[in-house]
Amino acid sequence: MAEATARLHALVAAAPTAQLAEAFAAAGHELSLVGGPVRDAFLDRPVTDLDFASSATPDEILALVGPLAEATWDVGREFGTIAARIGAETIEITTYRADQYDGVSRKPQVAFGDALEDDLVRRDFTVNAMALRVTPVRGGGAGADASPQLVDVGGGLEHLLQGVLDTPQAPERSFDDDPLRMMRAARFAAQLGFDVAPRVVEAMTALAPRIRDISAERVRDELTKLLLTARPVPGIRLLTDTGILDIVLPEVPALRLEADEHAHHKDVYEHSLTVLQQGIDLEGSRNPGAAPDLVSRLAGLLHDIGKPATRRIEGRTVTFHQHDLVGARLAKQRLKALRFDNDTVKAVARLVELHLRFYGYGEQAWTDSAVRRYVRDAGPLLERLHILTRSDVTTRNRRKAERLDFAYDDLERRIAELREQEEMDAVRPDLDGERIMAVLGIGPGREVGEAYRMLLEQRLEHGPLGEERAEAILREWWAARAVEL
Asked: In the predicted model, is pLDDT for residue 412 greater than 60?
């Protein structure tokens, strides 16, 4: 506790907090560090954002911060928030407020308050509802205590020490004010490794349908934050158990109904969660220091969502033929509905479509042509496909797991060798369109595209042909085509 207190005092003494505290106090306004910075100081986590709450209105905040800042942004003014860059720090200061839904609009209605304690009570969770007051209480007089004071209205510090996520007020009231907080509960539970208070779980279950009041964009952003944590699985389980994921991402809880044909796990749902976490672990080991990859994580979670629709009983065997193609279509539909950007949608759908392509490699030798096609089909997603395919091995049969791992090692080795020989990342025909037209004596048209695709197939099948051989193949194809026509 003494170390945490020292960290908090260091935050207060450092710029820009000290500069802001002096300016706001001189103007007779309250200013407090709130939420994440206070929580993370107690948890000995890096403090990456400085968030403040104040009695000042947005216009007053802008007037006080402007002289101290290199730049300010008032894009959140309607919600009471002013952002600024002071030195190396980007800060946000928000007028005491409460976000509430009227049950009709899908955006929160904002009401400004006039007391820090009231502001904190309206926040999402007790561990985020602590504040460090860095100015005297407004109206406290000349003798008011100017030293930093911890304000904890909901027992946040106690919950922090216990590792419990709870709400400052009744969870039903909190979630009614902003239903997105139910998804935040899942994210914070995963991010902090906390248990969720039973009354919070009960309220999430009862109010799950209210998540429909939230815009797709806000739901998408909160789902993204959950998936980008180091261990998102507990949060996904919470969303599933409370029925929220049935609304947000129904294809995932639907997997609980399907038995895995290899009996790897209790069901495909458990398999998919394992694949997600194994993929995250592979991200770290294969690409140390790289930022978390949302595309890979979405693909890991969604790679088998085509199984419920393709499930068939054949004798004693459960099959899921073409679940890769069906799953790719379902992934595209769902991610579009959640307003993910087109590049993310296309990449995830393509990975889902390709995730079975490797299987069978260890059972029969692939030709160089097959390896080229694997690389060509994956394109810029190849490294992500490596991660997805490897993480998709969840069998408890050690020999089988080792055999598949060895086979994929061999495939990656062959890809590396062919890359050195052939520049596989930019596979093109040996002749471009201009040369094709010159050799055949034709102008632009459909025939040029057909010839180009034919030469690309030859390149994939046989490797680099060289210009002379490619021209001979082209002339031979053209002559045969003329006979057929």
From this structure: yes
If DSSP states are collapsed to H, E and C, what string results for 223-268?
HHHHHCCCCCHHHHHHHHHCCCHHHHCCCCHHHHHCCCCCCCCCCH
Cβ-count burial 205-215 (b if 16+ within 10 Å, e if not): eebbebbebbe
pLDDT tens figures, 441-450: 888 888 888 8
User: How far apart are the C-alpha atoms of 45 and 30, rounded to whole Å?
Assistant: 26
What mean pLDDT do residues 46-58 have?
90
Over residues 256-269, the mean pLDDT reads 61
Q: Report whether 306 contacts 320 (CB < 8 A).
A: yes
Higher pLDDT, 401 or 304: 304
The mean pLDDT value of the chain amounts to 88
Q: Which CATH number fits domain 2-159: 3.80.10.10, 3.30.230.10, 3.30.460.10, 3.40.50.300?
A: 3.30.460.10
Tokens 């030469």 identify what position?
455
Residue 265, pLDDT score: 41
Q: At what angle do helices 294-302 and 342-354 cross, to 10 degrees?
A: 50
Q: Which CATH architecture has domain 253-425?
A: Orthogonal Bundle (1.10)
- The 8-class DSSP code of residue 136 comes to P
pLDDT given for residue 426 in this prediction: 60
What is the Cα Rg of the chain in Å?
Answer: 29
Give CA angle at 457 (453, 461), nearest 5°: 170
* Sequence-ordered alpha helix ranges (H) in 307-432: 307-310, 323-337, 342-354, 368-378, 382-391, 398-422
Bridge partner list, 109 = 100
Identify how many contiguous H helices and E strands the chain contains and give both numbers: 23, 13
Domain residues of the chain, as ranges? 2-159, 163-248, 253-425, 428-484
Cα atoms found within 13 Å of the Cα of residue 280, Cβ hemisphere only: 18
290-302 burial string, b = 16+ CB within 10 Å, else e? eeebbbbbbbbbb
Both tokens assigned to 465: 């042909």
Q: Does domain 163-248 fall into CATH 3.10.580.10?
A: no
3-class DSSP state for residue 84?
strand
Tell me the two tokens of residue 107.
């955006």
Q: Where are the alpha helices (DSSP H) in 44-196?
A: 58-65, 116-121, 156-162, 171-177, 181-192
Reported as a single tens digit per residue, the pLDDT across 340-382 is 999 999 999 999 999 999 987 766 678 888 888 898 899 899 9
